[in-house]
User: Fold these one by one.
Assistant:
Number 1:
Amino acid sequence: MFVSGATILHADLDSFYASVEQRDDPRLRGRPVIVGGGVVLAASYEAKHYGVRTAMSGGRALRLCPHAIVVPPRMSAYSAASKAVFEVFRDTTPLVEGISIDEAFLEVGGLRKIAGTPEEIAARLRAEVLERVGLPITVGVARTKFLAKVASGVAKPDGLLVVPPDGELEFLHPLPVERLWGVGRVTAEKLHARGITTVGQVAALAESTLVGMLGRASGRHLHALAHNVDPRRVRVGQRRRSIGAQRALGRSPRTRAELEAFLAALVDRVTRRLRAAHRVCRTVVLRLRFADFARVTRSHTLLQSTDDTQLVLDAARRLLREAMPMIDERGVTLIGVALSNLDRENAVQLALPFPGEPAGSLDAAVDHVRDRFGTAALTRAALLGRDPGISVPLLPD
Ligand SMILES: [Mg+2]
C-alpha cells in the first residue's frame, strides 16, 4: 500500500498576544506577562510556569504569580502580526489552511524538489517568522492534521517536532489523554475516573465501551483519534458556512432592553464582517445559553439574501421577542447571533431599500469609520455607558 510521507505542517505561534507584547516592549522580555485584565487573554511562558492559564480570572492569576506584569490587549497590533505571519505561510506554500489568527496547517508535500524536505521547510519557516515578524512559532510535522497538531502541542514553546510515518503510534500512545483533540476537562475527568490517563489506554478500549462512557459522538471521535485515523486533507480557501459572534452575560438577570442592546451590538459586528467578506446571508440565527448550561438556537430565513444591518437586526429582534418567555423562566447566560446560508454578494440580486429606510450607504459609512478609527469610534445610543465586551481579532471571513 502506498503510504504518503509526513508532509503536513501545523504552525502555531507561542502565547501569541503575550509574545507580541514582549516583542514590542523589551522590558517585558523574560518576565511573566499577562495580557488582559478581568480575564487572562494570554500569558507568557514565564507566567504559565506559575500555573497561569488563558481564560483564568485575573485575580486568580495574580495570586498564582503576584509579580506578573499585566498589560491591556492591543488587538490591532495582534491583527497586524497575524497578517505578517500568514504572509510568511503563503510564501512557504500555496496550500495554507488558516485555523485561527495564530495557527495554520500547511501542506508542503509537493515542494521537495524546490524547497527540500518537510523538516527543512519547517525549520526555515520558523527562522523566517522570527526574522520577519519577530515572534516565536512552533511547528509540528506529520502525515495527518491531527498528529501534526499534537506534535506542535508537545514541542511548545519555540520547537520543531517531526512524527515519522513509521513512528506514529509510538509517539501517540504514551501521551496523556488531554493531548487528544476534543478532550476537555470534563472528558478527561471521566476517563481519569476509570483509571485511563494515556492515549494508549484509550486505544485499548472497544469503540462501544468508549461510546458507553462518553456518548456517541465523543466516543467515536476518541476511538478514531486514538487509532490514528484522520483522513482530512489541508483545505485551502475553505469558505465559512456561517459568521457569528456571541457574548457571555454572567449570572445576573437581564432585562429585555439590555438584551436588545447586546443583540444590536452583536448584529453590528457580524454584519460588518459579512460586508467586509463581500458576502450576503439569508438566515439569521439567535443562540442562547441558559443558567443550567442548556443551549438553544432559533432561526429565521429571510425571503431574500441581504447584508443590511437593519434587516438582520429586525429578524434577530423578532427571534429574541419570541424567546423572551423561555429566557424569563430559565435565565440567560450567553447570547449570540450567527448569519448562515451565505452567498457571494454579487451572486444574488439584492433587495432594493424599502421606501423611507436608510440604504446601504449608512452601513458603508459606519463600516468605514470603524475600519479607520476602531470599533469603539461609533456606537449605538442603547449601548452608551455599557461595557462593549471584548472583540478579538479573527481570520478574514
Ligand atoms: Mg497559538
Number 2:
Amino acid sequence: MAAKMAALVMLILTLLVVRLDAENTNSVYHPCADSKIQRSDGFTFGIAFSSKDSFFYNQSHQLSPCDTRLGLASSSKNSQLALFRPKVDEISLLSINTSNFFPDSYGGYMVAFAGRKYAARSLPAFVANSSYIVTSFTLVLEFKKGRLQNLYWKRDGCASCKGKSSFACLNKQDCAIRTTSCKNRGGSVDCSLGIQLAFSGTDKHLRVFNSWYEVENLRQYSLYGLYSNLKDSLTSQYNKFF
Ligand SMILES: *[C@@H]1O[C@H](CO)[C@@H](O)[C@H](O)[C@H]1NC(C)=O
Ligand SMILES: *[C@@H]1O[C@H](CO)[C@@H](O)[C@H](O)[C@H]1NC(C)=O
Ligand SMILES: *[C@@H]1O[C@H](CO)[C@@H](O)[C@H](O)[C@H]1NC(C)=O
C-alpha cells in the first residue's frame, strides 16, 4: 500500500515536472533583446532580407541587423524583416510565402539574427537573383547555457538535388530553381522558402539540445511531408522533382 502510494506520488510529481517543463518561461519577444532559454521555451529571432552589402558596416564589418549603424530599418534601405518564434529544441519548418514577396527585389540575401548585447547573426545567405531562387535552407541555432552563441546555415553541397534537371547547383552549395519556373513568373512551382531549424548546444540548465542530431539524420526535404499546410504546395511539387 505504501509502495503504491509512493509510486502514485512519484507519478504525480513526474506529471507536474513534465507540465512545468512544457511551459514557456521566456518572456522576451523582441528579436533585438537578449534572452536565456530552456528547453520548451519559445525563442524569437528575425530574418532580414536585403543586399549582401547592406549587412556590412563600412563594407568590412558584418553587424547584426539590430545595429542601427546599418540603418536597415530606414526606408532608404531596401529590406524586409520576417520574425519567428519557434519552440526551442523542436524541429520546425518555417515557411515564407513568396507569392507576394520576391526576395530578389529586396537585394536577394538573408541574415538570421537575435540579441543585442549578446548579438548573434548568421552570414548572409544567397536567396535569389533574377535568374535563380534557393528555396530550401537549414538553419542551426547554437546555444551555450541558454544563450544564443551562433546562427549558421547548414549546407549539403547540393546532395539533395544531384542529378535533378529542374535544379541548378550554385557555387557547389545551394540547390536553386530557375525563377522562370516559379508561379507569378511564368512557371508553375510555388517558390516559397522553407527553413528547417535545428537547435544545438545547451539550455540554461545545461541540458543538451537534441534536435540537431535528428536533423543530421534526416534527409533534406523529408520534413516537408510532416507539414500538412505545406503538403499541397511544397511536398507534391517537390515529389514531382525528386
Ligand atoms: C572605414 O573604412 C576606411 C577604409 O577602409 C577606414 O579608413 C575608416 O577608418 C573606416 N571607418 C570606420 C568608422 O571604421
Ligand atoms: C502562398 O500563398 C498563396 C496565395 O495566398 C497560396 O495559394 C499558396 O498555397 C501559399 N504557399 C504556401 C507554401 O503556403
Ligand atoms: C545569379 O546568381 C548566380 C549564382 O551566384 C550567378 O551565376 C548568376 O550570374 C546570377 N544572375 C544574375 C542575373 O545576377
